[in-house]
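Task: sequence design from structure.
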């Protein structure tokens, strides 16, 4: 088994809920996402489920919603896609 991580640069998100996505994924491996605050005194929450969408060429996209709660009105969010291969 192998685990791979695909990191996005930290992104600013204002307080509230925003839709994010990764244009990664395939049908043969386990995929997930991690959403973490990148700064002190912030809180992020992955809302609801994670949607995986494939097109006619089996190119995949993973979509999810994140809620940010920060005392300064927003903060940086660290998004990571995770692939586990058998």
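Answer:
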């Amino acid at each position: 088994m192998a685990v791979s991580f695909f990191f996005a640069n930290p992104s600013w998100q204002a307080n509230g809920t925003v839709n994010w996505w990764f244009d990664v994924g395939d049908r043969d491996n386990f995929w997930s996402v991690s959403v973490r605050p990148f700064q002190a005194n912030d809180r992020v929450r992955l809302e609801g489920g994670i949607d995986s969408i494939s097109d006619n060429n089996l190119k995949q996209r993973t979509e999810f919603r994140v809620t940010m709660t920060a005392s300064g009105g927003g903060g940086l969010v660290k998004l990571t896609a995770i692939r586990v291969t058998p």
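The mean pLDDT is 93.
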